Amino acid sequence: MHVLIERILGGDSQAVIDLYQQYSPKLLLYLSKHLPETEDAQEIVNDVFLEAIDSLGLLKKGDNLQAWLYKIAHNKMVDYYRKKKIKSLLLSQIPYLEIVATEMHQPEFLFEKDKMRDTIENTLRQLSEKYQKIIRLHYEDHVPVKELAVIFNLSFKATESLLYRARKEFQYLYGRT
Fold first, then answer.
1. Model's pTM, two decimal places?
2. Mean pLDDT (whole number) for 90-99
3. N or C: which terminus of the chain carries fewer CB neighbours within 10 A?
4. What domain range includes position 111?
5. Distances (CA, A) of 169 to 42, 47, 130, 132, 140
């Protein structure tokens, strides 16, 4: 087993710092090449080391420590893009959508979809009653704008404007979560 791992497992806190200092620059460079923002890469590097420290017991004797860290980094990066894809899909089809892609029926996607649905519901509850009502009627009940205009006693253009403002407010609040 790698000396640093033995030290960490032995309770040596300096070994954790040494591990981070030795491998974080390489991982940051790798992730920076594959992610749009340096801040995202730095955050994932931190997550890699948190997971690595938590999972040290899973590392087998003779395993390549650097390759293992890169594998964790790769998986974290895949998770980052998966979450980003799900978030953009959900925001583009506020509030609910039928996800057609077969990959979205895999357990990890279903879990993320359920988390996102809970976040959407919480965000909707933060909106004014009027905004909640127009979003739910239009996106959940599929009421066309023409009928919404009658329900809200507004002109067609005013109803479109109300729906637009409700969507924008939803997106703003959702982005803060």
1. 0.49
2. 51
3. C
4. 103-177
5. 30, 31, 12, 10, 17
